[in-house]
Design brief:
It is built from six helices and seven strands; from the N terminus they run βααββββααβααβ. It is α/β, with parallel strands linked by helices. The chain is globular and about 35 Å long.
Length: 135
């Protein structure tokens, strides 16, 4: 598998989201793009910024950004240290608990996220299924 986070990993993850029937069903009403900001910690020396356009169970666009000013603000921004993202991916921290305890900071409509916990959890399931190699 590709190393998290990398361009190759992002392509694999998007392919997973767009081919996973369970995710498509769970996220059929989801509307919202997002930035994932991965702050340096542990083995990650530089910040990584990832954009995902998630719309009705599909990822319409995804890319890594050098500069967050490249785009208009997304509906959601999720920010955490690399180590906390790894802990979420490995299942050491529950993603919703990480949001509520600010180990994963969320900018955007938190009520929308909480109304769509099943979508968030299935998104993380897809993330876990394609990620087993880290920096």
């Amino acid at each position: 598998m590709a190393v998290f986070p990398s361009e190759e990993w992002l392509t694999t993850f998007v392919d997973k989201l767009n081919s996973d029937q369970h995710y498509a069903q769970m996220a059929q009403n989801w509307e919202g793009d997002m930035n994932f900001i991965i702050l340096p910690s542990g083995k990650l020396a530089e910040q990584v910024n990832i954009y995902l356009d998630l719309w009705h169970g599909k990822c319409r666009e995804a890319y890594m950004m050098d500069n967050l000013d490249q785009q208009k603000p997304p509906v959601f921004t999720l920010q955490a240290t690399y180590d906390n993202y790894v802990r979420i991916i490995k299942g050491e921290i529950d993603p919703m608990q990480a949001m509520l305890t600010r180990k994963l900071n969320v900018k955007g409509n938190m009520a929308y996220m909480l109304r769509n916990v099943s979508v968030v959890l299935d998104f993380v399931r897809c993330l876990r299924e394609v990620t087993d190699t880290f920096q």
